[in-house]
């Protein structure tokens, strides 16, 4: 794979379309995994659920802050699109930022505010508790995730996502940075409010941040969760999986293939791991994940210094 080239900003439309397709793929995989009526019925789940929610009447609560509430819901899809804007598709990217890795981290932190607005704007006890749960969880995953993002950048000597991908021509970073890769994937699952880290939308609090959502508003938030998973999977490809590097197929095809495979793995985590309470995850995050990522970063730094 050669040097990454920035394309015309108009191609952000294609990036949005690809993100939508990936989100639908994630929803279809989730539907198949949770269906007892067979693969065909599972694949139709996203279609029927979308049609049901589009027809459903929008519900609201007394004295809700509708502007902030809907900003929190719609913002998730926008943040996911901003994340993939810096992800190379083979050798092409919409925004070749010098600080692309930092940009992704900033968008991830923006999710904090959006999920909190979902909890706050509804003016509902269950939604508010869900918002607080997410913030408590975010405090536990954010620092390990940040250091997991830094490790590939240190190895490549650049914060440009394209440079990180090009630097893996000989050996993918996932091979000698497994801890950073696993922590990154856990962070993606967590900021997507997914699987074991979906306590912010837990059934024990009536659905949490999703409790009062209905109709198109609920559909938008659910789509945002799948889009965030897809964006995280897409970003892992240039960061740890060699970008578009691979035999026979063109670079863009390898990027998409790797993204889809990782997305399927992330989606299937749901239902296979138990929900983790925020206070328990805080212990794991601060006592295990953070030290582990720091050791990984130290090893990467020593290798880079030794090689130079």
CA-to-CA gap between the ends?
A: 23 Å
Percent in helix: 55-70%
Largest β sheet strand count, sense and barrel closure: 2 strands, parallel
Order of helices and strands: EHHHHEHHHHHHHH
Mean pLDDT across the residues is 87
Rg from Cα: 19 Å
Provide the structure class.
mainly alpha
Unreliable stretches (pLDDT < 50, length at least 5) are none
Count of discrete domains: 1
What proportion of the residues form beta strands (DSSP E)? Answer: under 5%
Shape: globular
Membrane topology: Multi-pass membrane protein
Protein name: NADH-quinone oxidoreductase subunit H
EC number: 1.6.5.9
Pfam family, one: NADHdh
Notable traits:
single chain; 308 residues; mainly alpha; two-stranded parallel sheet
Structure description:
It contains 12 helices and 2 strands. With 308 residues, the protein is mostly helical. The chain has one domain. The chain has helices at 12-34, 39-43, 45-55, 66-84, 100-121, 125-156, 161-166, 173-176, 178-191, 215-240, 251-268, 278-307, and strands spanning 5-6, 92-93. It is found in: Cell membrane; Membrane. The chain crosses the membrane at residues 12-33, 67-89, 101-122, 134-159, 171-194, 226-245, 251-269, 281-307. GO terms for molecular function: NADH dehydrogenase (quinone) (non-electrogenic) activity.
């Amino acid at each position: 794979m050669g040097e990454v080239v920035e394309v015309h900003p108009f191609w952000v439309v294609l990036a949005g379309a690809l993100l939508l397709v990936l989100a639908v793929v994630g929803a279809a995989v989730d539907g198949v995994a949770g269906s007892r009526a067979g693969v065909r019925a599972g694949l139709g789940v996203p279609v029927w659920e979308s049609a049901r929610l589009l027809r459903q009447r929008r519900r609201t609560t007394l004295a809700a802050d509708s502007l902030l509430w809907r900003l929190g819901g719609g913002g998730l899809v926008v943040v996911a699109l901003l994340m993939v804007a810096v992800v190379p598709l083979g050798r092409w990217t919409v925004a070749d930022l010098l600080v692309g890795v930092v940009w992704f981290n900033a968008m991830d932190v923006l999710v904090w505010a959006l999920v909190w607005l979902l909890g706050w704007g509804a003016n509902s006890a269950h939604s508010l508790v869900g918002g607080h749960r997410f913030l408590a969880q975010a405090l536990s995953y954010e620092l390990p995730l940040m250091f997991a993002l830094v490790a590939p950048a240190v190895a490549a000597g650049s914060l440009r996502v394209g440079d990180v991908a090009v630097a893996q021509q000989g050996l993918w970073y996932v091979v000698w940075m497994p801890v950073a890769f696993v922590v990154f994937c856990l962070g993606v699952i967590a900021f997507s409010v997914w699987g074991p880290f979906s306590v912010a939308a837990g059934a024990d609090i009536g659905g949490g941040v999703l409790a009062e959502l209905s109709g198109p508003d609920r559909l938008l938030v659910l789509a945002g969760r799948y889009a965030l998973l897809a964006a995280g999977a897409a970003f892992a490809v240039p960061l740890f999986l060699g970008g578009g590097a691979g035999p026979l197929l063109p670079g863009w095809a390898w990027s998409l293939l790797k993204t889809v495979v990782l997305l399927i793995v992330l989606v299937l985590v749901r239902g296979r791991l138990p929900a983790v309470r925020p206070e328990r995850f805080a212990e794991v995050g601060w006592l295990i994940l953070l030290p582990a990522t720091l050791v990984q970063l130290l090893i990467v730094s020593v290798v880079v210094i030794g090689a130079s």
